[in-house]
Structure formats: structure tokens, C-alpha cells
Amino acid sequence: MRDLLVAGGGPVGLATALYAARAGLDVVVREPRAGVIDKACGEGLMPPAVTALEGLGVRPGGVPLRGIRYVDGAHAVAAAFRSGPGRGVARTTLHAALLDAVRRAGVPVEHRAVERVVDAGAHVLVDGDRVRYVVAADGLHSPLRRSLGLDAPSHAARRFGLRTHAGVAAWSPYVEVHWSPAGEAYVTPVAEGRVGVAVLTDRPGRLLDLLPGFPGLWPRLAGATLSRTRGAGPLRQRSSARVRGRVLLVGDAAGYVDALTGEGIGAGLAQARAAVEAVASGVPARYERDWRRLTRRHDLLTHGLLAATRHPALRRRLVPAAAALPRLFESAVNQLGAPA
């Protein structure tokens, strides 16, 4: 009987498997999709995520990021990361690096879906196979979260993410966040001559219809080749608990507030490590407490920023206020860039 089955082979699921292998656990990953998987995301790794990946022996290349820069019309303000550079990495590049690390660690990846999970007390039955524990890392709209009855309703505004890659040279060593009434556009250098452009919005429509609403960004993309648009959402997802018996939820499957602060991968990696520590200790319930501790700061900052941006008057003043108070902006950026 295996110690752990990880349902979901995205970055957080693969990182969970790597932490488990390092802890001496017999682990397997189940992911129905073979090969490298693309997904809509901002593709900027905050410094703690870079450090965590290096600790797992994963160095996915990409482009160093100095910090974050907010842009809104005539106003702009930048803050550098104090704890070292972040990294801009295309989602497919990151996933390929993690897959290679999992292969080198000898962790098997089975290309089939998890259909049914039953907690049998001393073990878990996964489609009839016995395992000691399950970690669900099956994404934003987690089928396992739903099947376990852990979905919780969300009454927040429905926001969506859209992402493309533009064939242009990066013009800034920062992640640029451009603000407009339509939403926020994130520009992240991911490779030489290539930037990721992700838009978060509550307005339906095509990415190409939304981009002209960002006057500080749109002219820089004129004539650039744009890749296929990827989409994700609704972004706000809630879970009533992160542990049900011997099943633990990590990453987006555990619940998601918004991509506004760009800390998704870093938060997921910290959760993966905590979940494995709980499993290795034989006390899975401790992960619930650890999850709350790890997500508290991020969730408070994200909820606060979202609340401010819902009011048009406050939204218009956000970047000018940050530019007028650069030390406060730098402090907020480095709260996000600090280890959990």
C-alpha cells in the first residue's frame, strides 16, 4: 500500500510529490493529461517561490524579476524585492522542469483521472486501490473538493483571467501591472524576446478587445505576434475545510481568492510542503491549522486590494496614492515577497 497518492499533476501537485519523495514516502501522481500542460497564469514567481523551487532542485530558467511596478496613465511607482529577485517563467517551462525533477526522483506519474475516493478509516480507497493518504491538487474547480462535499459558496464578483504571449523584448525588469476600469494587465518577461500578458477582469469579452483599454501597454504590443489566448475562472473559489479524514487539499483546490497579488505558485508550494509534513507525522488534521497560518497574510492583502478596486473612485486613486507613498507601496510588495 502506497503512503500517498497525489491527484493532479500541475506544478503544486508535482511539488507535493517531490516533497513526499524527499520525506521518504512512497508516492504516486495521477494526472489524466500527458506531457507539459499550459494554463492561464501571470507567470511571475515571487522570491519565496524561487527559493522553494531551488530547494527542490528545480531551476526552470526564465528571466530575473527585480520587483513590481504599477502603471496607471501618468502615474507609475516601482518597488524592488528586498529578499532577492523573483523570476518570470512561462507556465510550460515551469511545468517541464517539475516533470523532469519528478522523473529524476523516481516518482511514477499515472495518466488517468481519480474518479472515486472513499475514506476507509485506516486507509483511503482511490478507485478501489488502497493508499494511506490522498492530496488533492486538482485545480481551481477541483472535482475532489466537490465530491468530498467541501465546496463552499462564493458571493464575490466573478473575475476571470486571460493570458497571451507577445513576441516583443521586455522593456522593464519588473512585473508591470497596468490599471484601467476594465481590470488589471500583468506584463511579465518570460524569455528573451517574449513577455506574458495576463488580464484580470470581471468584463466578458476577448483579450484583444480588452487590451486597448490599457493606454500605457497597448502601443508597446503594436505589431507583435500574440499567441493563443488561455483563460481561467471564475477565480474566486472557496472550500469549507482543507482536510477531510485522510484527504488534504492543496493549491487552487484548497480555495482561491484572486490572482491580483501574483502569489499563487508560492502559496501552493508552501501548502504542498505543509501537507506532506502533516502526512509524514501521521496527523493530517494539523494541516488545517498550518493552511490557515500560511494563507492568512496573503488573503488579507488580496481581500483588501480587491475591496479597494471595486469602488471606481478608490480604483482611480490607487496608483497615484502608491506613487505618492512609495515606501508604503514597497512595504506592501515585500509583504507579498516575504516567506510564508
Q: How many separate structural domains?
A: 1
Uncertain parts: none
Number of helices: 9
Mean pLDDT: 91
- Pairing-aware structural class of the strands and helices? alpha+beta
Q: Estimate the helix proportion, in percent.
A: 25-40%
Sheet with the most strands, sense and barrel status: 8 strands, mixed
Tell me the span between the first and last alpha carbons: 33 Å
Instruction: Output the helix-strand order.
Output: EHEEHEEEEHEEEEHEEEEEHEEEEHHHH
Roughly what fraction of the amino acids lie in strands?
Answer: 25-35%
- Can you name the CATH architecture? 3-Layer(bba) Sandwich
Oligomer: single chain
Q: Find the CATH topology.
A: FAD/NAD(P)-binding domain
User: What best-fitting shape do the alpha-carbon axes yield?
Assistant: globular
CATH superfamily: FAD/NAD(P)-binding domain
Number of strands: 20
CATH class: Alpha Beta
Rounded to an integer, what's the Rg over CA atoms?
A: 20 Å
Would you kindly provide a written description of the structure presented here, covering whatever features stand out?
This protein is of the alpha+beta class. The protein has a single domain (2-156, 234-336), classed as 3-Layer(bba) Sandwich (FAD/NAD(P)-binding domain). Helices cover 32% and strands 26% of the residues. The strands form four sheets. Strands 1, 2, 8, 9, 10, 11, 19 and 20 form an eight-stranded mixed β-sheet that branches. α1 runs parallel beside α6. The protein is globular. The two termini are 33 Å apart. 49% of the residues are buried.
